[in-house]
Amino acid sequence: MIRINRNRILYVFGLAALFITAMPIIAMAADSKPALYATGWAVLPPIVAIGLALITKEVYSSLFIGILAGGLLYSGMDFSKFMNHVMIDGFVTSLSTPGNVGILVFLVILGMLVSMMNLSGGSAAFGSWAAQKIRTRRGAEYSTVALGLMIFVDDYFNCLTVGSVMKPLTDKYNVSRAKLAYLIDATAAPVCILAPISSWAAAVSGFVQGKNGLSVFIQAIPYNFYALLTIAMMFMIITMNFDYGKMAVYEKNAAEEGDLFTVKDAAALKNDDADDTVHQGTVMDLVFPVIVLIISCVIGMLYTGGF
Q1: Taking the CB of residue 201, how many other CB atoms lie within 10 A of it?
Q2: Buried (b) or exposed (e) across 40-51, using 16+ Cβ within 10 A?
Q3: Cα-based angle 35, 45, 19 (whole degrees, multiple of 5)
């Protein structure tokens, strides 16, 4: 309770600081351009969103307040302009765009698919099969990255699938949950932005006007240094057995004391209890839906592109 109250106090303090910061720049708004156009104040909204997320651990509300901060800078505290930009041009327009709605439905279906694979026992069966083939801690980490590279259709689907599949195996070899989350997250987004057949490729190529967006996307792959170096870094960290910062503390506790969490996570423990009650399944219960998903995505992209 004390922790919750403290977070709420910090949350309110951050919100108040946001409005106090915005007050002296009201007069700087220009009529011809958005307020504070092309100035350093443009970094304020992401700083507010990230700062509040770190303080409160509430991502959605922090992002929403970051959006409000951007609206304030854009409108110069003009209420009507603020509402039109944030609500009408922002939320309403985004949710009424067929492409955005399609992506939202796609992600919802992906979440349903992962839940079905977990309930059918496919994820647990694949984990048990992998445990027979992989016999070292380093091998469990390598296989986590390798599986992440294979599921390139969507980063959210990647995280959900690889996390549920590899968790039993990494737990067996005392890989901390923090390290598992890092390996999954640092592989998912880079591989999706590098793969021409992915939700990221479809979204990014759609922004290219007057040219073949997919061709431009493919030509830019060798210059996507962040994604390429991040994937390379995953293999280097595993090969060199190198951990730093908080990760080193988590990994030491996991390897020496069998403590996978260091900081107890009630939600994660609850999910672990739920995983113990899954039905018996086979590896095909996991592999077959993923193969069908990839084939369907390729056919869907060809269809929407006019073959």
Answers
A1: 21
A2: ebeebbeebbeb
A3: 75
Q: What global pTM score does this model have?
A: 0.71
Percent of the chain with pLDDT over 90: 22
Taking the CB of residue 78, how many other CB atoms lie within 10 A of it?
A: 16
Number of H helices, E strands in the chain: 16, 0
- 93-121 b/e (C-beta count within 10 Å ≥ 16 → b): eeeeeeeeeeeeebeeebeebbeebbebb
Report the C-alpha gap between 115 and 243 in whole angstroms: 32
Residue with tokens 């018996």: 280
Q: Please, what is the angle between helix 177-194 and helix 155-172, to 10°?
A: 150
- With tokens 């260091």, the residue in question is 262
Interior/surface letters 160-191, b for 16+ CB within 10 angstroms, e for the rest: bbbbbbbbbbbbebbbbbbbbebbbbbbbbbb
Alpha-carbon gap, residue 120 to 116, rounded angstroms: 6
Amino acid at 43: V
Listed in sequence order, the residues at least 6 apart from 44 whose beta carbon sits closer than 8 Å to its beta carbon are 21, 69, 73
* Cα–Cα distance for residue pair 216/223, rounded to 1 Å: 12
State the residue for tokens 């992209």. 301
Say if residue 1's pLDDT is above 50: no
Do residues 155 and 201 lie in contact, with contact meaning Cβ atoms separated by under 8 Å? no
